[in-house]
Amino acid sequence: MKFTCTVTINQPRDKVVNYFISPDYLGEYQEGFLRKVEVSGEAQQEGSVAKMYYKMGKGEMELTETVLENKLPDYFYAQYHHKHTDNTMNTVFTEVDANTTKISSEIDYTALRGVMVKVMAFLAPSFFKKQVQKWLNNLKTFAEKQA
Predict the structure, then answer these.
(1) Which of 15, 84, 113, 133 has the fewest CB neighbours in a 10 Å radius?
(2) Which residue, among 88, 91, 89, has the nearest Cα to 104 in the 3D structure?
(3) For residues 70 and 30, what is the distance between their CA atoms, to the nearest angstrom?
């Protein structure tokens, strides 16, 4: 399952990239974000591995992020592992003009494990896309409030 989500943000590219990449801001646009813990390598550099934790109901969800390429401010490409899914995300930051940035995130789910996840992907694939688009829209709202 592969899809792309986009958003245009009225802020300079360097600011948008900083809001996107810095763990200090993840909780501002990703609901439920709790913390990011570096496991190996230099944070957010190629080959680095980090654990990301989100509040889900009464428990926590854990994702493992492996950075495949970091060519910021142009793009950031990473793999995400969860016990039920594996996906890659390539996020491209395009400078529209000095004060406008377009973000395009291409998501490719490469593995779906478990009956419920497979059923959701089959019956409601838009659920996965809506979540990514929601976080991009939240990033836009947050970034544009930062004068």
Answers:
(1) 113
(2) 91
(3) 21
Cis check for the bond before 73: say yes or no (omega within 30 of 0).
yes
- List the CATH number of the domain containing 36: 3.30.530.20
Strand, helix or coil for residue 72? coil
> How many Å is the Cα radius of gyration of the chain?
15
User: What mean pLDDT value characterizes the chain?
Assistant: 94
Domain housing 38 = 2-145
pLDDT at 119 over 90: no
pLDDT for residue 123: 73
Q: Are 98 and 90 in contact (CB under 8 A)?
A: no
Q: How many domains does the chain have?
A: 1
- pLDDT, residue 28, reads 96
Structure-token pair, residue 23: 């763990």
Cβ–Cβ < 8 Å for 84, 112: yes
